[in-house]
């Protein structure tokens, strides 16, 4: 094996303590050196973004198999995402299994050249409430031991979304948590007490838990009926996925989560295959979708995933007044912690050289995945 030469970037480097310091960062596959020096530089060097919930992009979808996964991994790397979980949609069981095998195949073949690192799959459904499908097709099923056994044998799931009120949900969650899988609560009609008890049981086992796209497909918060969102916000350990695209979540609802759950909010895209393609017709789980003005909907008006990329989510959060170091944590350190990834998420010597470099206007200027530069395509002006 030939060792790759060490590369060096100079700019304002975001350190794990939340301070930007002018200096240089040296790296091969891992970060090998961080120095502070007064050199003229206007670039911002951040840890690469980690997206734990992403269905598609550039016309590709996780359900398409390896070719679709390659497309989405390359598209989102263009926007600063260096690690992601291809996410399945609720579908007939054989199709879900085939998609999971596709993720495994991509990982086993060495990943996606020119794309984000893939660290496993996010299984979204089919173990969800038929009464809270959102834009998921109507193929929800109950957890069953034989299905659980098939999932465990694949050894590819890193995060799951399930509805805790389903019979058998806790057994499924326990089994997956035993493999280190993050347990997500979503697409649910459970009440707050059910969700709180479910979380409590899992935390006693040492499991990592998460809200799947907080506020979406789980009802609202009322004083007497706080619902799943209230329970997830109130729990001290649950991580909280938020789609900050200006469509899925009201800015105040996002700011509420940020205030209630410091260090627990992570930004995701929930992007579907039309991400990166502009407005026009598309598809989600076999259903026709229309994208107009950056909003993807089914024919009945249901929001159907997003066309968000994480660089846009970053700019949206900054526009709402959040300091960039805090936003960076929501894009890197927090999602890494939610998945139990200890080799990435911050800029520290010894961690993977997953780097996203921005200019002063917060546009992506360079991206490195495990020290490898991603060739960036020229784009029109960023949103
Ligand atoms: Zn989703």
UniProtKB/TrEMBL annotation:
Highest taxon, organism lineage:
Bacteria
Task: Give the residues the record marks as binding Zn(2+).
Answer: 124, 187, 213
Q: Name one GO biological process term.
A: N-acetylglucosamine catabolic process
Sorted alphabetically, which keywords does the UniProt record give? Carbohydrate metabolism, Hydrolase, Metal-binding
State if Hydrolase is listed as a keyword. Answer: yes
- Co-factor requirement: a divalent metal cation
- What positions constitute the catalytic site? 270 (proton donor/acceptor)
Co-factor note (free text): Binds 1 divalent metal cation per subunit.
- PANTHER family xref list: N-ACETYLGLUCOSAMINE-6-PHOSPHATE DEACETYLASE (PTHR11113)
Query: In what residue span(s) does the Amidohydrolase-related domain sit?
Result: 45-373
Read off the Pfam families from this record: Amidohydro_1
Traced from the root, the source organism's taxonomic lineage reads: Bacteria, Thermotogati, Deinococcota, Deinococci, Deinococcales
Return the similarity comment.
Belongs to the metallo-dependent hydrolases superfamily. NagA family.
Q: What is this protein called?
A: N-acetylglucosamine-6-phosphate deacetylase
The record's NCBIfam families line, in alphabetical order, gives:
nagA
**A Gene Ontology MF term for this entry?**
metal ion binding
Q: Where does substrate bind?
A: 135, 216-217, 224, 248, 303-305
Q: Which InterPro entries match?
A: Amidohydro-rel, GlcNAc_6-P_deAcase, Metal-dep_hydrolase_composite, Metal_Hydrolase
């Amino acid at each position: 094996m030939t060792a790759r030469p060490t590369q060096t970037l100079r700019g304002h480097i975001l350190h794990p303590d939340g301070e930007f310091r002018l200096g240089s960062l040296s790296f091969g596959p891992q970060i090998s050196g961080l120095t502070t020096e007064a050199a003229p530089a206007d670039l911002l060097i951040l840890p690469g973004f980690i997206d734990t919930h992403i269905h598609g992009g550039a016309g590709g979808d996780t359900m398409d198999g390896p070719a679709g996964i390659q497309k989405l991994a390359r598209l989102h790397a263009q926007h600063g995402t260096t690690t992601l979980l291809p996410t399945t949609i609720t579908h007939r069981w054989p199709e879900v299994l085939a998609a999971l095998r596709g993720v495994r195949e991509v990982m086993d073949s060495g990943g996606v050249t020119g794309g984000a690192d893939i660290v496993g799959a996010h299984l979204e459904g089919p173990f969800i409430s038929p009464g809270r499908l959102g834009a998921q097709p109507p193929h929800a099923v109950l957890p069953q031991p034989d299905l659980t056994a098939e999932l465990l044998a694949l050894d590819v799931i890193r995060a799951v979304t399930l509805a805790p009120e389903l019979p058998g949900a806790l057994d499924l969650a326990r089994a997956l948590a035993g493999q280190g899988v993050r347990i997500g609560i979503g697409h649910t009609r459970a009440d707050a007490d059910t969700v709180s008890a479910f979380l409590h049981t899992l935390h006693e086992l040492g499991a990592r838990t998460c809200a799947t796209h907080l506020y979406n497909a789980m009802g609202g918060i009322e004083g007497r009926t706080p619902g799943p969102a209230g329970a997830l916000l109130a729990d001290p350990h649950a991580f909280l996925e938020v789609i900050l695209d200006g469509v899925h979540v009201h800015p105040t609802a996002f700011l509420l989560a940020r205030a209630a759950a410091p260090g627990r909010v992570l930004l995701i895209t929930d992007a579907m295959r039309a991400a990166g393609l502009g407005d026009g017709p598309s598809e989600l789980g076999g259903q026709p979708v229309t994208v107009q003005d950056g909003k993807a909907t089914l024919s009945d008006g249901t929001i159907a995933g997003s066309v968000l990329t994480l660089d846009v989510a970053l700019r949206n959060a900054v526009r709402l007044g959040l300091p960039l170091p805090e936003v960076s944590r929501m894009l890197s350190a927090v999602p890494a912690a939610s998945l139990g990834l200890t080799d990435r998420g911050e800029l520290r010597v010894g961690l993977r050289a997953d780097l996203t470099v921005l200019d002063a206007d917060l546009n992506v200027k360079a991206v490195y995945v495990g020290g490898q530069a991603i060739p960036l395509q020229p784009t029109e002006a960023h949103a």
